């Protein structure tokens, strides 16, 4: 109604006419004349636009174009306005001053010589014709030429307001399976009014697809996995399988965390990544399954068989990035996703003594070792928070840096290779994350003593890092914020099996794998000044031979993850380590965990049934269980 | 002649009319009017009444508002039986009040009344009101298309006898303020019909025309909507075809044969509603045409029977890189050629089969939006053969007769023309539409032409006599596409607001209205060859299939009861297919009932 009222009244104002008059050099237009002109011009313009609309409608468009106006002018026997060609609408600029407001079109000066010297524009592509099947016997095939069967908006609506699905009669808009067989006959006779249940049947093709995809994603063939992930990330029309996919992932994570099967966890996270990347899927309905899985992969106590050698850090980094992506995509004011995720991580970082005593150095040693949050979880929590942005880092990590420093210090000075490695990684990560924040936060000069006082153990290293950052003003990269490990496809094993320099100093406890199954890849070089800070993170998975000397030898057909790490001196050096690593995985066996007997199927039953003897799921899973 | 003297002249004319010589002389003397002006006293009756009426109330423009309010109250308080019929009076009264106020320089009051009562008019009138409100003073009324339509034509309103008695009683009570009486007298044609008052739905179904409803008398002519008798063809090649078929599908040849027999059996039956074959002269079939016909029949024998259980396959042709340049598209009857018209006045023709384009012997079937001329293109030598001039303004649509030889065009000049290939002048001129003719379609028996116009009417013209035989109102927006059903009895029209109307040509009444699914206009309609499915394509990039069997069945059943047309959409809708941002330009059922659709991909959305 307000629209139509607006429509009745619109016309040129006297002011507009005066401004236009000024612009053509008539300075002293009388009010009455302006009024007359305004009325007349409004009328004539309206007539022209009304005529132009006819041309627009016959051109089967809903947007008025300049050619329509030209045609309308021609119909009225008026010379059209030549020289106005604009493919898109021109934005009006606004200016005010001297009590007058003005909307005008900006006219730019064009340098002709520039146009002349510029390469000629591309010739527009010729119109071409392409045929595809929109429907075959009434069913719309899900080929890329057709839109996804259920649009993202519809999926969103359904997840926000499930009632709409039920109230929609027979869901005719979704061009899925035609009503056929018994249901159709019932409907046709209209004698029985059966309320349609929301069906969750998958067609045979979908069942096959599900089977293929899940097998390929966790299988041994890297090529097939890449294809499967590509399909997950690009294909439309997967929404019907989403519930099963998500259950597959969440159950898979639960089982494999208990089994410490790092490779499978990585595969599952890559599936999550692919699904998040799919433009036609709306995942919000399944976040209650995905978020616990992802957060498990970030902060779990143990993700691999031998924490001292396996590179589970890469998985934590990758999962943290996934979590940030989830938060960014799905955070709304109603689900408060980011707040909840942040709370989850900050809880892991919670200094146990914080509630009682602010200065906790005396408390820490007195605590039992088992009560402490493991360093690996701390690392994950830091990484998870860091991905959420500098503000989060400032509030949640910087305030706890003193306590974290103590933990690192304690672990580094203590015994136990795994702890020292973890502490080193944690310290490195903390420095990397904190330095840019501190740099933005603090004013120079950076005095080591101040830092020491304020940040405790990590102070001096932080100070060096910050001053380094300050000295390289453009160096966004110098902060070491470059992604360290990428697990995203395509990850192809580098063909050369020869051990490179980065593998040579492989730590002693690692089993020496059979050369044929080892692949390695390059590590990127860091800054030239201090080469010793190259930290290579290689995850090499071999189908280890039974004679593997690892102490907790897993059953054959399992993965062993080998990582080569350079320790200690990496972290004492302030030179940021830009290390790149690829994860390369090889296996000769399908990777479904064997100890479970649940068949691989596509029924609603989860693929990975949790065995009775399995340990409790990691405590991290519980934090978000209320999402379910 | 000054404006002020116009009322005086009107009074003089009135005095002369009643032969009051004395008074006339005195007035002439007093007003100092010259002889010249006096001699030229020939104001039209309508204007005269208008002037005098306005003069009477000129002093009190406020009374208009009260008058309208009182009319509204009268309508609201009347019995339900009359209410809906009487409510159709409100809009024309309102429009003419506005125009009269403008004519007598009460511009502020006119705008005030527009703003007060405009929004409460039916929504399908809102577009007209917006166009009308551009008129803001007296001078503009004369040049304005819409205002002229309103003032030079009478608005049609249908009332039952009882309702009109009610109205007369009301008007009698209103003697003191003659505004409404005068408007109704001068600008509204009340069509009184016997029988009970119509229900809300019945009234609604025919409302929406620019000038109200069609009067019943206009639709009394008999329309021969049946199909022509097909000429007998020797179907020699059919035998060969049979063998081929047997080879193709050896498992069920019997069924096929039965079907085919059925199709050939049907033909000799003569339809009582069909016009005689020689009602309009049709060209004799040449040997070539006979071969073509035979081919068509054999193709038709392979036709898939469609129905709600058996939906057609759709092959979608997407025009890539066309942007907004592709305007219209058409596929020829034997589904071998696709022509697309572009906004730079070029036509591109694609072949849809593997046959090369050159050397095709085919009917020249092309259409293009061309300015002020219709061109005939030959597909044999790929040149423009004839330019038919006659239209003064842009031509919006052209269409071939199904039997060839004739074609029809209609456009901005509100006139539809019938042409034949051997004359450079139009054979018939169909005038009567009040606004642009936006779409035109030949009846399958070539005897009639349907036109849809921006005045929101669909009209049917007889090619033989050149007269209008049906005027169908009920569209709420401009119809942009028309399609005759395969049997020739039904006409479907798709409107600019996305609604589809089905008309029964035997009565001229709307038989079904499919409400819009979205606001986008329908740009293509096609009936399946067996008449069971209606396909519609719209600007919102969807193709929808409707169950036409239900629509037509219902109407035949309802004929006796004269019930209101049904409005249930989901009952008719079979399925909706979305494309990827490709608004539909054209739809075409092949002879085997495969649906071909053409759309141009619009990447910018």
- Major sheet summary line of chain A: 4 strands, mixed
What is the count of DSSP helices of chain A, taking H or I runs of 4+ residues? 24
* Structure summary, number of beta strands of chain B: 26
- Beta percentage of chain A is 5-15%
Overall radius of gyration of chain A = 32 Å
Helix proportion range of chain B: 25-40%
Order of strands, widest sheet of chain A: 4-7-5-6
Looking at the structure, what is the overall shape of chain A?
Answer: extended
Percent range of helical residues of chain A: 40-55%
Estimate the mean pLDDT confidence of chain B. Answer: 76
> So how many helices of chain B?
19
Structural Rg of chain B: 28 Å
Strand content of chain B: 25-35%
Kindly describe this structure:
- The complex is a heterodimer of chains A (628) and B (605).
- Chain A is built from 24 helices and seven strands.
- With 628 residues, chain A is mainly alpha-helical.
- In chain A, helix 13 packs antiparallel against helix 14, helix 17 runs antiparallel to helix 18 and helix 18 crosses helix 20.
- In chain A, strands 4-7-5-6 form a four-stranded mixed β-sheet, with helices on one face.
- Chain B is of the alpha+beta class and 605 residues long.
- Chain B has 19 helices and 26 strands.
- Chain B has a four-stranded antiparallel β-sheet with strand order 9-10-11-12, with no helix packed on it. A four-stranded antiparallel β-sheet of chain B has the order 13-14-15-16, with no helix packed on it.
- In chain B, helix 5 (62-77) runs antiparallel to helix 6.
- Chain B is elongated, with a radius of gyration of 28 Å.
- Strand 3 (128-135) of chain A pairs antiparallel with strand 3 (314-320) of chain B.
